[in-house]
Amino acid sequence: MSWYILILAGLFEIGWAIGLEYSDGLSKPVPTVGTVVALIISMVLLAQAVKDLPIGTAYAVWTGIGAVGTATLGIILFDEPASLARISFIGVIVVGIVGLHAVSGGH
């Protein structure tokens, strides 16, 4: 169950990171509130996940999910570059996330 909670925490991390763009430097009230709420939910879920998962693994996976999701949505939503190199390095992060899950043992 902790892995599902961690994945959900990572999805909320994507939400607050993307919210930073929409909030225009936290100057727009509605996107700012959404960003702060997503940040709090993400942290609470991460805190729950690390009750059963090693902190190093959980934090790396959490940030990896956030990085991959935010970079991908940056390409889709904000017309950021989608070069082969950039997509390849995003793929390397995905491999790292899967690898950390695979070697996490009984957790």
Automatic annotation (TrEMBL):
GO terms for cellular component: plasma membrane. Keywords: Cell membrane, Membrane, Transmembrane, Transmembrane helix, Transport. GO terms for molecular function: transmembrane transporter activity. It holds the Pfam family Multi_Drug_Res. The keyword Transmembrane applies. InterPro entries: EmrE-like, Small_drug/metabolite_transptr, Small_multidrug_res. The chain crosses the membrane at residues 29-47, 59-78, 84-103. Coiled coil: none annotated. It is a multi-pass membrane protein. It is found in: Cell membrane. PANTHER family: GUANIDINIUM EXPORTER (PTHR30561:SF0), SMR FAMILY PROTON-DEPENDENT DRUG EFFLUX TRANSPORTER SUGE (PTHR30561). This is Quaternary ammonium compound efflux SMR transporter SugE. It comes from Halarchaeum salinum. The lineage of its organism: Archaea, Methanobacteriati, Methanobacteriota, Stenosarchaea group, Halobacteria. The gene is sugE.
